[in-house]
Amino acid sequence: MLEETIAAIRPADARALADARAHQDRLTKPPGSLGVLEEVAVRLAGAAGVSPPPMPVPAALAIFAADHGVHAQGVSPWPQEVTQQMVANFVAGGAVANAFAAQTGATVTVVDVGVAADLAPAPSLLVMKAGYGTADLSAGPAMGVPQAVQAVESGISVARSLVEGGARCLITGDMGIANTTASAALISAFTGKDAALVTGRGTGIDDETHTRKVAVVRRALSVNRLGEPLETLAGVGGFEHAALAGFILGGAAAGVPVILDGVIAGAAALVAQALAPAVADHCVAGHRSAEPGHAAALEHLGLRPLVDLELRLGEGTGGLLAHPLVCAAVRVMHEVATFDSAGVTEKSG
Ligand SMILES: Cc1cc2ncn([C@H]3O[C@H](COP(=O)(O)O)[C@@H](O)[C@H]3O)c2cc1C
Ligand SMILES: O=C(O)c1cccnc1
């Protein structure tokens, strides 16, 4: 399933890109006046292979939840059980992600890919466990490569079934106490940036905890074999990173744009990009998180974030906030008159 998905991902279509740029310049506005939004619409045209690209509605958020053995190293101030408690909150509709999803009309699907407990069944909860939390990545591999592949394929199948159900835009979400530690390790491994530069304060840690977190990330990078993308993922990643990488690949393979959330999605997108370099053509960076590793990941992916509101929450919140902007960018391509059709005189010279 993974190989087939990778093989189905096409780079941006040059003809659709050129058509979209030309169309932007015929619309009744000074060329370039919509700034970054013009580039967003052009990117979506390239990804879809047609200009104008389809409207990215309806949108579907998938929140991948998992626990982390590295939590035992004291890298997060929050107890591990907050992961499962927040899953219950998502399915009850009580989290920030639910409020933002309602605001933009996105559906919310929660996927247990490795929470360290059995959760109460709920209609919006999919159980696709690759394990009950990862092993401590600072002591050895977080998971086996077969487990990583299983979680990646879970993400692919969630993307596929959301698209089969009518979704025309996928938004990434995550929940997993201590997952900013695994994110920093993945980002350091894939970008080559030093652990100290990409390790942030997650949910809010003091200086002493931050120093310990950087040391934990360094240890993770030295005790694990970092080679093939899946080996690196299995060594220092989390089950939600693996599933998110699959979700991103699955959306791209299905021809549907994927709006990335924050640092966890950024780390997962690096895995996806290492497996299928063209995948970034199908992604939109929803926002830039306050986590320093996120900017490093986006730079490596060649993506420019749409929103910068100092968010540091995850769950998909930054991706959800960007969705109306992406919709507006595409709507312009469908609905704005051209100079010819509206009888507006173009600039001279
Ligand atoms: C109540 C609560 C809700 C959250 N929603 C997302 N996160 C975010 O914070 C966690 C990562 O930060 P760290 O690595 O510092 O533990 C992840 O679960 C992420 O999704 C939350 C964290 C908390 C505490
Ligand atoms: O960038 C994020 O998405 C993020 C930052 C801090 C904690 N959780 C998530």
Automatic annotation (TrEMBL):
Function: Catalyzes the synthesis of alpha-ribazole-5'-phosphate from nicotinate mononucleotide (NAMN) and 5,6-dimethylbenzimidazole (DMB).
Protein name per Swiss-Prot or TrEMBL: Nicotinate-nucleotide--dimethylbenzimidazole phosphoribosyltransferase
A Pfam family matched in the record: DBI_PRT
Family: Belongs to the CobT family.
Record: active site: 315 (proton acceptor)
The keyword Oxidoreductase is assigned to this record: no
NCBIfam families per record: cobT_DBIPRT, PRK00105.1
GO molecular function: nicotinate-nucleotide-dimethylbenzimidazole phosphoribosyltransferase activity
Broad enzyme group: transferase
CDD domains reported in the protein's UniProt record: DMB-PRT_CobT (cd02439)
Record keywords: Cobalamin biosynthesis, Glycosyltransferase, Transferase
Pathway(s): Nucleoside biosynthesis; alpha-ribazole biosynthesis; alpha-ribazole from 5,6-dimethylbenzimidazole: step 1/2
Catalytic activity, EC: 2.4.2.21
Organism: Nonomuraea typhae
InterPro entries: Nict_dMeBzImd_PRibTrfase (IPR003200), Nict_dMeBzImd_PRibTrfase_bact (IPR017846), Nict_dMeBzImd_PRibTrfase_N (IPR023195), Nict_dMeBzImd_PRibTrfase_sf (IPR036087)
Lineage: Bacteria, Bacillati, Actinomycetota, Actinomycetes, Streptosporangiales
Catalytic activity entry: 5,6-dimethylbenzimidazole + nicotinate beta-D-ribonucleotide = alpha-ribazole 5'-phosphate + nicotinate + H(+)
